[in-house]
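Hi P.,

Sorry for the delay on this. The queue was packed all week, but I finally got your sequence through. Input first:
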Amino acid sequence: MKISAKTRIVGLLGYPVEHSLSPAMHNAAFERLKLDFCYIAFPVRPELLKEAVKAVRALDLAGVNVTVPHKEKVIPFLDEVDKEAFFIGAVNTIVNKNRKLIGYNTDGRGFMRSLSEKGISVRNRNVLIVGAGGASRAVGYYLCQKAARLFLYDIDKKKAVKLSNVLNKIRNNVSFLNLQSSTFNLDEIDVIVNATPLGLKKDDPLPINVDLLKSEHIVCDLIYKKTKLLEIASRKGCKTLNGLGMLLWQGVLAFELWTGKRPPVDIMRKALISNI
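Then the structure:
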């Protein structure tokens, strides 16, 4: 990749970011299309987020991705937030349009594209999302519009109930499900989505009671590596999906927002796989 004085910079604001696969994915796409762009990961401590966003404008970066822990807190520092991202309450992509910073969220659409790519439909099915954070809000925004019913669980019940109330404004089919109840089972659930960080570390507890899994279940994890949850689900005969597809497709959508061009999806996918 040749860097010149004309090279447009895009990047990632998060903390930490050393593990990110986004630079490899986007730079491979820029190189294939011969676009004079370069993607850089910027470690931004929470207390410096406001200054980092100002730098996007001051340095005239083409745009940035936003990741943990900044997706929600970045919103007050933007000039405009699109309708979807505003409702979700989280931004993962910023476009610098003539020094006007506009926030978007491509996570939910990326997840739905990853489901479709694998032939998984949630239409008229009951879906359970474990976790009620930013990722859950993003995927829940779309899942509640397609699923027969959407159930939410979080160890913080108030957080899950609050998100349920928000999503019910889109479609009144969302409710809290108590996984800790002694009478709980997964018989009425078709699709399970782990939207928690549980599984990033080898010694993490499992997000659900895997003894309740049956071969008919579809189990998804937003973590892009094959987690213990997915390994056990696979052994039980469940169809499984990790978060690699979501990472890919949210990146594809961000790429289009920054450049106005369709990226080479297969090149981006290969870059992700070769850097895991």
